[in-house]
Structure formats: C-alpha cells, structure tokens
Amino acid sequence: MYVSRFVARVFRKTTNCFPMKFTRINLLVLLIGSLMPAVSFAQSAIVQSNNRPNVIVVVADDAGNADFGFQGSKDIFTPNIDRLAGQGAIFTQGYVSAPVCSPSRAGILTGRYQEKFGHETNIVTDSLQGLPVAEKTMADRFHEAGYLTAAFGKWHLGSGKGYRPNSRGFDYFYGFLAGGNEYFPTRAADIEHTWRKNDTVVEEKEYATDAIGRETVNFIHNHSKQPFFLYVAFNAVHSPMEAKKNIEDTITTTDNPQRKKLAAMTVSLDENVGRILNALKELGIENNTLVWFINDNGGGAYYAFDNGKFRSHKGALFEGGIRVPFAVRWPGKIDAGMKYNYPVISLDIAKTSLQACGINNSTQLDGVDLLPALKTKKPVERNSLYWRYGSSGAILNKNWKLIKVENRPRFLFNIEKDPGEEINLLQTNPNKVTELNSLYSAWEKQLVAPLWKQVDHYRISDLGYCTLAYTTKEAMAEKGFRNPVAFKIQETKIVDNVMQVIAEKKESDPDFMIKIPLALLTNEEIKTINAGKWIGKNIHMVGKVMGDNSSGYIRAEHNGQWSFE
What we know:
Elements: H1 2-15, H2 24-35, H3 41-44, E1 54-60, H4 79-86, E2 89-91, E3 94-95, H5 101-110, H6 138-144, E4 148-154, E5 172-176, E6 195-197, E7 200-202, H7 208-222, E8 228-233, H8 245-248, H9 257-282, E9 289-295, H10 319-322, E10 326-329, E11 338-340, E12 344-345, H11 348-356, H12 371-376, E13 384-389, E14 392-397, E15 400-405, E16 408-414, H13 430-444, E17 465-469, H14 473-478, E18 489-494, H15 498-508, E19 513-517, H16 523-530, E20 533-534, E21 539-544, E22 553-558
Parallel strand pairs: 1-8, 1-9, 2-11, 3-12, 4-5, 4-8
Antiparallel strand pairs: 2-10, 5-6, 6-7, 9-10, 13-14, 14-15, 15-16, 17-18, 17-19, 19-22, 20-21, 21-22
C-alpha cells in the first residue's frame, strides 16, 4: 500500500498535471516496469520509451479553404503553417466528416463516422449532451498504450462531467469547454466558457490563441522525454472576430476591414503554430513527431472567409463546407514538398497516427492508414467517402459526388472536372445517380438516429422553397413573439423566380426577411450577393449559411434592419 502511494506521488510530481486515476495494480506494474530492463510488450506499453513517435493534431476553426499561404492566399501570410505543410504532404483534396464544428471534432477524435453514434449536428445543450461515452477517442487509445495525452483550447464535445476531456482519455487539459469564446477574456464566464486547467477554473489574461500556444509549448518542454499525443484545438479564427490591434495595424495586404481583422487573427494562429514547431526543433524531437494540421470545416459565410473556387460555406455539403486545408509532417518518414492529389478525410488521422505508433487497437475505425499511400503516391484503398448532416447527405465515389436532400438526389457533380460544383449532371447521368444512391443507402443502414437535433429556426424544408420571416423586434412583438432571436417562420412558398418574390413582398410588408436556398443561385450570383448588392428599393442581399440544408441560404433584408447574431 505504501509503495503504491509513493509511486503515485512521484508519478504525479514528475508529470505535474494529471488527474487520471490509477489503481494499485496499475502503479505496481508501473514500478515493476521501471525497475526491469527486459519487459514484455504489455509492460512496455506502460513504460514510456524515448523512441516512440509523438503525435500532435492541430485544428484550426472556421478558416476558409484559401485563407493560408500553402492554399494560395495572396493577402494572408502564414509562413509557419506553410513550413509545416512544405516539409511534409499537402492533401489537395482533403475533407472533414461534417460541415460544422462539434460533429467534425467527434469524427477527428474517434476516427469513426460520427453519424454511427448519433453525434450528427452541433450540440444543443452542452451540459446534457456530448461525445457518447461508449466511444473511444484517440486519447483513450494512446493513453492505454502508455502515452501522455493532453488537449488544449476548444473542446465543444460536451461540458457535463462525463464528457469533459479528462474523462475522455486526456491526462491533461487546458482550455474551455464551449464551441467558441472571447479572445480577450474580460468577464466572468459560464461553465462552458471559463478557462480550465483540468477541471479547475483558472483566470486567463492572455489573448486566447497565444494562451493555447503557450500551454502547448510548456507541455512539450516539460514532457519531451516521454511519448505524447497532443490535441491542439485553436478557436481561431472562429467568431467573435477579435484581433490583436498591434498585429491588425500591420496588415497592409487588404483594405477590406473584415479581411484585415481576419488576417490579423490568422497571423496569431500562425505564430503559435510556429512556436510549437520551434519547440520540437529546439528539443531535438521534430523528426520523431508526426504533426497534423487541419481546419474543422469550410469557412463560414458570416465573415470575409475565402473558400476559393469551392461552392458554399460552413454548414453545407458542397465542397466549400467540407473540403478544408489539410497537411501532415513527419521528417524522414513523409517526403517533403509532396502534394497528394487524391481524396482523404479527417477520419484518417486517427488510423494513421495509431498505426505509426505501433498501436493496433484500432480495428473498428473508419479511416485508413495514409502512410503507405504517401509512399506510393497512389490513391488509398477505399471505395467512397460519405456524409450525413440532418436532412442532407452526400457520397464521393472516385470523381463523382452525389448530394441528397430530404432523401432525394438533387445534385451530381464530377469533382475532378468541376471542383466548383457549377454543373449539375443529375439529369444526364441517371445510371450514375442510381449507382451512388444505392451505395449511400447501404452506408446509411449502418447509422443511428441523431441523439439530438440542432435547434434551427432557419430550416428550409427543401431546395425548392424559400421561407419568409419578420426581422425587427417591433415586428416580432406586434406578431406576438417574445423572443426576437427566434424568427418564427410565417410563410412557406415555392419559388420560381427569387427576385419576383422579393418584389412582391417588399410592397406588402415593410418588415420581412426572405431566406433563399443557395442552390437556386449560380456561383456568380452568390459572389455578387456576398459582395453586397442592393436590389431594388432598400433591399439588401446578405450571404449566410445555416441550418441542415446542404445548400444553406442567403438572406434578403428590408431597410438593413437585420444584424448578425
């Protein structure tokens, strides 16, 4: 008993941060393993070995596909992230498993299609919902294999006791539980937005992106002699859009105020990725560390994000919602300067990382090991990629992508020839539609019903509809609605001509909003609208993507009385 207590004290002191509970048997095995030079494979899984590779997964938040240098940005410079990508492989057709934050992260951390365990949309009530406890995370698997595991930054996978990082395989956590947070902590926060060291609330005074980078670097310095798995989830560049003024003042590549602020926020993100890479180099462990960089979903339409040539934004199953910046570096194991031009998905991170570390407890994962494909520079061996998000679904099979809405095929694209998804081939390729629809239906039989449904007052029932709602507090009060945020749908109407509907409505009702599916508009029309175009008398079109519809929508507002929530 006294031996186990002594080992526990020593272990906690040397690791300096871990709340994970150890039984006496665990501690005795640890002690025996530390005393015996010749140990079995099972024992060596507990004893940390210096030559076992480290793994770091860096996740950015809501950035546009073309908002990094290695992705072609001309007005946002990211030399450190570009260095990571240039010293390894860039996945030019990299996808995430969901078009919004929480389910995408559930897929990254489990390596499984999150629709298989019901984590299909963003969490509605953080304290009551979260990544199902029956699911093993990458951290669980690494922890079982003797790795030190730590998570930094944004969690967004549940704030209830059983859902927090320290209950999901992470020895250490520094960050917050919510899906977003202030960058300059200035007020008392609720349970989701307080900063935490493990489960203890702490006061954080530094800019959020810098705080996440600082804590990650400190951990690396303190534990460079032990194999580790780090999940570094920056909330940059998710809203609220708050940049450091000293950086924003140096941005001269754009006159667009939104783009300038976004650039400054991205510079802070890049600087802190650089701090992490520099720490690995200083400690002489960069060649033994596998580093991933990925964005959690497509760039949002709520700000001046740039998704390049790809259609739509965050929240959509078009390429702009799920095709993301994605790169990996492992010096000496992955050729530098490589561009891998075949489809990969965020689910592959778990399988690849575990295999790279010799951890073979991952047979139930949906991802594949990318290392063999990166050596041969050939496509990975799998048939299709799949998505389901509320009423929308999609399948990518080789070059063909089918998007379904309300369980009906609505779009067919050849992604190789038409990456911008401008030419709908649904009517001209019925056999391909049937083939892909059949494959999707077979996959969907493996799924469960969503464990919760996102509260969404902006839902569009189908691509052929637009919905009309009242937008001002006065109009809401007049109609008897107490909550001005919950814009209750007043009317649903089939749309043949969007502009005709606007013209008719603006004369009969001075306070209205029309939500129009993006599918009814061309890419050029969307670009014009997002640039801010006045159509007729006091009618302003504003770009926006929300809800479960695969196309999202844009809004027409009257008299400019809508403000972004």
